[in-house]
Backbone:
C-alpha cells in the first residue's frame, strides 16, 4: 500500500481501514450527528515507517472520529422462487449506516506501573491437640476373630 498513515480498526464487528481526514461508512451506530466516537480496538497501526500489530489489539492506542451523518444504502432486493410450485416472494430493505470522519491517531501514554510492596503476615499456625481415641473395630474384624476361635 502507498498510504503512510493508516490503521485497521474493528468497529461494529467489521474491520475498517481508517486514514486521518477521510470519511468512512460503518454499520449504524447509536450516536447523534456531531458526537465523538473513540475506537480503541485497533488491530493494525502504521505511522510512517513504524508498524504496530496487535495481539489481538494494539495496546495504548485510540482513534477519535466524529459522526458526520446517518444514511441508508441502496435497496437490496430479495427474491425467492420455487419453480413449478407457483411460489414467488419479493422483499427488500435498505441497510442503515453511519458516516464517520476520522481524526488524528493518538497513542495513549502507557500507565505507570507502581510496584507495591506486599508483606505477607503469617499468623502462627494452631497446633491441633492430639487426643487418644480407641481404634474403631469394624464388623469384618469381629468376624475374623470369631472364625479364628
Residues:
Amino acid at each position: 500500500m502507498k498510504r503512510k498513515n493508516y490503521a485497521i480498526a474493528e468497529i461494529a464487528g467489521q474491520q475498517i481501514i481508517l486514514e486521518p481526514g477521510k470519511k468512512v461508512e460503518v454499520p449504524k451506530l447509536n450516536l447523534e450527528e456531531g458526537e465523538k466516537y473513540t475506537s480503541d480496538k485497533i488491530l493494525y497501526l502504521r505511522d510512517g515507517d513504524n508498524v504496530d500489530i496487535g495481539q489481538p489489539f494494539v495496546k495504548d492506542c485510540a482513534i477519535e472520529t466524529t459522526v458526520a451523518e446517518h444514511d441508508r444504502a441502496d435497496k437490496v432486493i430479495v427474491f425467492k422462487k420455487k419453480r413449478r410450485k407457483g411460489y414467488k416472494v419479493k422483499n427488500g430493505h435498505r441497510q442503515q449506516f453511519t458516516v464517520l470522519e476520522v481524526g488524528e491517531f493518538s497513542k495513549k501514554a502507557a500507565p505507570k506501573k507502581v510496584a507495591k510492596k506486599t508483606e505477607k503476615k503469617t499468623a502462627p499456625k494452631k497446633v491441633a491437640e492430639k487426643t487418644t481415641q480407641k481404634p474403631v473395630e469394624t464388623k469384618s474384624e469381629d468376624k475374623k476373630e470369631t472364625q479364628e476361635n
